[in-house]
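Anyone? Bumping this.
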Amino acid sequence: MREYSISQLSKEFQVTTRTIRHYEERGLVAPRRRGQTRIYSPADRTRLKLILRGKRLGLSLEDSREIIDMYEPGKSNIDQLKKLITAIQVQRLQLTQQLDDIGSLLKDLNQAEADCIDALKSNRTDHS
Amino acid sequence: MREYSISQLSKEFQVTTRTIRHYEERGLVAPRRRGQTRIYSPADRTRLKLILRGKRLGLSLEDSREIIDMYEPGKSNIDQLKKLITAIQVQRLQLTQQLDDIGSLLKDLNQAEADCIDALKSNRTDHS
DNA sequence: TCAATACTTTACGTTGACGTAAAGGTCATA
DNA sequence: TATGACCTTTACGTCAACGTAAAGTATTGA
């Protein structure tokens, strides 16, 4: 049953300790304490992973918090669940949109790269 | 040979005119003027599209500006081109990373949704 | 002619996501 | 015992990406 210090996680995930504490201020993680010192469980570590993944996808911390809270079992009344399902579908729409965007961008990048390479080639043979 | 007003584009892309002007302040678009009034060409419109796509992907305006500038032909000296190719490859790495992230998130969302639906079902038959 | 509508610039305000001191506690080891 | 290497809280600072007046110009229709 492993546990982690804040600096361990900050090194592992390449973020500052300030960042991790900031996520706690915003209510995205809540590690237990040993005295004053924060002790992170594997579950806490997973939350961090999810937050950072969300960040790479351009989600706000608030968005990530909501998504992460979806995975918490607990307090599931029916209305809550229905709300969650709607939220999930919205998220999914955004993500598929992003998939499209990425596809387009990758295509554009390939084209731009090919153009660059072509330009280099003609420059090499063209001694005008 | 169509042209657009700022409010037309703001409606089409669902952003405020302030936002579009902001992109201009940051050097991402430069529509011509008729008197004081901005007149957007189809090319300008395309730039806006690219900017907003970048935004959905979590790029900064600065990032988008660089990417967009890649597609400009003109001023291509060899060092410039090589720099661009490198930049493109970096971008591609980030994007494939994002693709991974999205795949993971979609999987998680599917799971969360399934869990919700299950919970609803058991709630319907379980009258405890 | 006057009111509405759409455009403009200038400039200060706001929000999110941290950065960056400053000041202090705890523990190992040289 | 004192020097690092960690950890803590408090709190002001910063930067990007706009928001939000405020004040003015230009055109159009009743």
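Late reply, but here is one note on the structure posted above: Helices of chain B lie at 6-13, 17-25, 42-56, 61-70, 78-125.
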